[in-house]
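Action item from last week, closing it out:
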Amino acid sequence: MAKAMRAARKAMKAMRRRAMKKSVIAKGKRARSSVFHGNKAKTQSGLKKSDLIKNKAGKIVSRKASARGKRSYARIKGWTVAVGKARKALGVKGFVAVKKGTALYKKAKEFYGK
């Protein structure tokens, strides 16, 4: 019995607990921030530092999603600028729907055509 106990004790010494390996995957609310600043390698969804970019508001966003958004907005930019000019010309303040047939719509259409 004593011999078995000695063997078990020796086995226990061999199985010493080691510290857990530090994770390189960023998790949680500040995940993108920690990857962007170089503290972690990637986010849980797999975004690396090269895939991240800061937007105009200073928020860290996906480079691809940001580019897609810019392309999408480019398609409607002319109309939004025209509506802005129409609102200024008519002295419109606050929310006003740009509904077909309204003075605001007609004015915006005028500017958009130019």
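Closing note: The mean pLDDT is 92.
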